Amino acid sequence: MTYHPSAEEIDLAAVMATLGDSTRLAILGHLDRQDGRPLMCSDFTALASKSNLTYHLGRMRESGIIRLEKSGTCKMITIRRDDLDARFPGFLDSVLKAAENMDLPALECEDEDETVEA
C-alpha cells in the first residue's frame, strides 16, 4: 500500500521544499491544467526519465501534494487540492500563479498546443 500523509500531517515546509524543483513544479502545473482529471505516470515521460519521475512523484506523494491511485497496471495521479487548500488556504493558487511566469519543462504534446489526455 502506498503511503499518503493525512491532511493534518501535511507540513508546509515539506511542501515548499518539494516544490523547490522545476520538474516537480512542471508536474504540478500539468496536473492543475487537467481540472481534476487524473494523469498517468507515463504522461510525464517528456519531463524526465522513468527512474527520475518515480523519484519526483514519490517526493510529491510523501509531502502530500499528490495522490497516487492504482488503476489496473497504472497509477493515476491527482493533486490533493482540497487537502492543501484546507490546510494552507491560497498557497497552491499562489504557487501555480507564480509558476506560470517561470521557464518550466513542457510536455511534448503541449508544444503542439494540445492537452494531455488521461
UniProtKB/TrEMBL annotation:
Residues 14-93 form the HTH arsR-type domain. One of its GO terms (molecular function) is DNA-binding transcription factor activity. Gene3D superfamilies: Winged helix-like DNA-binding domain superfamily/Winged helix DNA-binding domain (1.10.10.10). It comes from the Bacteria. This is ArsR family transcriptional regulator.
